[in-house]
Amino acid sequence: MSLSKLKQKAFTNEEVKVEYDKLENEFSFANFLLEMRNKAGLTQADLAKLMNTSFTSISRLESGKGNPSLKTINNFAHACGFQLNFNYSRLS
Amino acid sequence: MSLSKLKQKAFTNEEVKVEYDKLENEFSFANFLLEMRNKAGLTQADLAKLMNTSFTSISRLESGKGNPSLKTINNFAHACGFQLNFNYSRLS
DNA sequence: TAGCTACTTATCATATATGATAAGTCTAAT
DNA sequence: ATTAGACTTATCATATATGATAAGTAGCTA
To answer: Which residue, A58, A79, A71, A2, is CA-closest to B73?
Structure first.
């Protein structure tokens, strides 16, 4: 089983996810996107249809390739049924 | 005095900002960026130098033109001395 | 095995974000 | 009135994100 497959499965379990997050020191934005989609219970193909794009584009984003625009990030979240929130903290 | 000038001044005052946020129903990402730069006490020119770009690009972002990439947003925050945090809530 | 679903990767054309430059606006001084 | 600082707007070339297509990988089930 590949790492991304494992994550995909694991993230559907809240306890596993919490443990994973504790261990993961460098938070990946790709995982953030994957998490939203999994919480929404959508396949990449489902989400692609909602976003009027191809599922390969979804895969590209969740694989950490690319550098999505604000619009793309917001579209992704909304299609998953979520509202994005941004905040900032002093850099340590 | 233009609206953006007013905001720029007002946001340096925490109380004013809080009141503004209460009234503002639709949160603008441009204001979010402006707020970070003002908190950092930087001019557009200062920030531009830190980001290795021109101050007109900063203006473009803060004026709500454009659709910044994740990289640009992170560069902006870091140059202002902040760490960005993303989270999401169920869409109502 | 074969066939299916979900996903990744590679490639390409096109749309768009970015960096740069020039010109204009506004405000506060001198 | 004019000079300077901070910012906005317009335009253009170039870099890059996006959408689309095709081919490959992995897991599952009959």
So the answer is: A71
